[in-house]
């Protein structure tokens, strides 16, 4: 550096600050390369305000969470009460006495028992889940990445089927499965859940979000369509697959109208329809037994959501970014 430039730099460094200018305190820290780095300190007066805002937001979120958990807490409490105590006024949250016998009756003494309904629901939801993920992923990839004549028109016609209400299709579906011999079998509940328009649409949008350069590079290396699908594109949409798995599982697990129309044998009932069979000595619905069965039915849904929670949130976040 020349002498005039050095003198100018030294005078600038020792010059007094300009009146009225506010400069935050600066501390110098060494970077990984050894060069000094300026670091601006947050004034201490702002830290308590930010902490107060954080505490207030946390309390509000906890309050809303507790509000939404109240029905579940009431269900757990009612599952341990006598029928006469469930509808007592004023209501009581703590059962007295605690009726653990409700769960014994539901799971062991019922004819058929909750175990039978549980096995039927697991069969229907499990097979339907695998089928829905398979067909939705394949169809979504075809509509997103394969080039064929009339692709977009076929996809629009496929989406147009969602205009028809599902309740309107119950009777034609009943007649169709009766002619095929599937009435009063679990296949009448499994087959409609294997092919879903929503799953195809969701997976198509996910595959469209994958950069096409990945597939083009693999195709130049000689990869075929199946290898592109399984090795390149499918790993990129795992979060969306997890979100679809939760939605498909919950929808099939909670389905009531399908079993009500398609099943007549009580030993084939799924959980939503099986809960209506828990009656008291007078022939009316036993609230305590129904609540005990409802608490038991929620456990698999919670397990599936907790397992795929991170992927589900990631899928929602990615969808919002797109």
- Helical amount: 55-70%
| Beta-strand residue percentage | under 5%
Principal-axis shape equals flat
The secondary structure category is mainly alpha
CATH topology of the largest domain: MetI-like fold
Radius of gyration: 31 Å
**CATH level-four homologous superfamily name of the largest domain:** MetI-like
Average of per-residue pLDDT values:
80
Q: So how many helices?
A: 16
What is the strand tally? Answer: 2
Assembly state: single chain
The poorly predicted ranges are 1-6, 17-32
What does this structure look like?
This protein is mostly helical and 322 residues long. The chain has 2 domains: 39-72, no CATH class; 104-321, MetI-like fold (Orthogonal Bundle), CATH 1.10.3720. 65% of the residues lie in helices and 3% in strands. The chain has 16 helices and 2 strands. Strands 1-2 form a two-stranded antiparallel sheet. It is flat, with a radius of gyration of 31 Å.
Detail the topology: elements first, then pairings:
Layout: H1 3-14, E1 26-30, E2 36-40, H2 47-78, H3 83-86, H4 101-109, H5 114-145, H6 151-160, H7 170-180, H8 187-194, H9 197-208, H10 212-220, H11 225-233, H12 238-253, H13 257-262, H14 271-274, H15 287-307, H16 309-321
Antiparallel strand pairs: 1-2
